[in-house]
Amino acid sequence: MSSSTPPSSHSNEHGASKEFIVLMAFIISLVALSIDAMLPALPDIGRDLGVNEPNRNQLIVSILMLGMAVGQMIYGPLSDSIGRKPAIHLGYGLFIIGSLLSIFATDFNIMLLGRLLQGVGVSGPRIVAVALIRDRFEGRMMAQVLSYVMSVFIIVPAMAPAVGQAILLFTEWQGIFVLLLLMAIAALVWLQLRQPETLTPERRKPFSLRNILRAIREVCYTPVALGFTLVTGIVQGAFLAYLNTAQQLFQVEYGLGEHFPAVFAALALAIGLASVANARLVVRFGMQKIATYALMAVSVISLICFVVSAMMGGLPPLSVLMGFLLPLLFCVGLLFGNLNALAMGPLGHIAGVGAAVVGCLSTLVSVPIGIVIGQAFNGTVLPLIGGFALLGVLALIVVLIIRSKLGEIH
């Protein structure tokens, strides 16, 4: 791919080069690594930065998500205005600053500031990479390229804790941030040298805060969009609580130690397999039906697991817990894509900025939920599983209200 011959918009006729697909996957994979590679290092980071309460270490994950919520509202419209590559450059610049702050942090608050900047920064390449793909391809070719790229999300979250654990075998936790820093620099250089700009000057739009505010207003005043954005946030909140507490639960309470990444990988693959299965199921059953039944399953599985766990003192045998968590997280995997698509359904005329608003608002709902449940961790599975049960029922109620008021949405 030569930088002297930029592809025209929607260049389906030549297909996607392997280099392009790998570059886009590399860019997007930094999101999952930034979240999950940290998990084995949370107690070490907290110890070195003077954190006395282990639950506070969870903020290293939650604050990154908060930064991503803020960032994704900005980068879509910004990339429409200044071009895809400059927007990605800006995101990586912030991510690199955040990584350096985290590497050299001697205070927990500085670490959290670094993670916030990492979140704001990494959301740029993540959002704009999808727009860049959309610039180059359309129709089935775009769907094919996106499926190749997004398949990374099945593999990387499963591998990320193992990567973090491997680094800890040879060096301190700062090594994980060094890896993230080097990956960001490599992606930045690779993008600059090998990927042409895909948004030509005549197709750019002025950056407009008014358009963002108008999109926020439209989402808030469109019942389907607002309802499913809220449900997305509720489900993401339960999942964030799982991410927040996974290290303490498996590595400490179940004593898995260095074997924690293997259990995390199995659970991550359950989510990934659900995404693959959903591609076929959604054609047959429709998004809302799948979402409704998946939420029913989440609620029932969580309630049964809560009762069983409570009867076993809050820490059932690991095999019993995995027997509940694998199907539970499979159902969560079915929800992610369908709920987002349902929220976006009425927003086709403002798809770009609409996606940014839905993503931002749902994350702003999920982060406080994830923090509250995570901070309630007490050495048992009860706060986490109870949170899944309560949130599953709440999300199901919202979906059933939408369905009763507006009918079936396909």
Identify the notable features of this structure and list them briefly.
410 residues; single chain; disordered N terminus; Growth Hormone, Chain: A; mainly alpha
Description:
- It is a single chain.
- The longest helix has 31 residues, at 223-253.
- Residues 1-13 have low confidence and may be disordered.
- The two termini are 40 Å apart.
- Helix 9 crosses helix 14 and helix 10 packs antiparallel against helix 13 (318-344).
- The radius of gyration is 21 Å and the shape is globular.
- It is built from 15 helices and no strands.
- The chain folds into two domains: 16-207, Growth Hormone, Chain: A (Up-down Bundle), CATH 1.20.1250; 208-410, MFS general substrate transporter like domains (Growth Hormone, Chain: A).
- The protein has helices at 18-36, 42-48, 59-82, 84-103, 108-136, 139-150, 152-170, 174-194, 209-221, 223-253, 260-285, 287-311, 318-344, 351-375, 382-406.
- The chain is mainly alpha-helical and 410 residues long.
- It comes from Pokkaliibacter plantistimulans.
- It is a multi-pass membrane protein.
